Amino acid sequence: MLNQVRPMDPQSPAATAHRGPPALRPCCDSYVCPVCDQVVELNDFRQVVWHQRPGHQPMEMDD
Ligand SMILES: [Zn+2]
């Protein structure tokens, strides 16, 4: 017999540890920028890059 039964438990911690992308914690997905006092959403890449610039102005938020 070439096919041997391999023990695979889908409920094991090793199988569930890497489910989905590395999501940010809900409590830590934003911060207040110390430069312009604007709330920066960490899941918005444009905002993160903007607020990393020294001496920047608050980002204009138009929707
Ligand atoms: Zn800022």
Please give a handful of descriptors for the protein shown.
2 helices, binds zinc ion, 63 residues, two-stranded antiparallel sheet, alpha+beta
Question: Can you describe what's shown?
Answer:
The protein has 63 residues and is of the alpha+beta class. Helices cover 16% and strands 10% of the residues. The chain is built from 2 helices and 2 strands, in the order αββα. Strands 1-2 form a two-stranded antiparallel sheet. A hairpin with a 6-residue loop joins β1 and β2 (39-41). The N and C termini lie far apart (64 Å). The mean pLDDT is 80. The structure holds zinc ion. Zinc ion (ZN) binds at residues 33, 35-36, 38, 51, 56. Zinc ion binds at residues 33, 35-36, 38, 51, 56.
Write the layout of secondary structure elements.
Layout (H helix, E strand, L loop, with lengths): L12 H4 L13 E3 L6 E3 L3 H6 L13
Antiparallel strand pairs: 1-2
Bound molecules: zinc ion.
The site of zinc ion (ZN) has 6 residues, from loops.
Q: Would you kindly provide a brief summary of this structure?
A:
With 63 residues, the chain is α+β, with helices and mostly antiparallel strands. Helix content is 16%, strand content 10%.
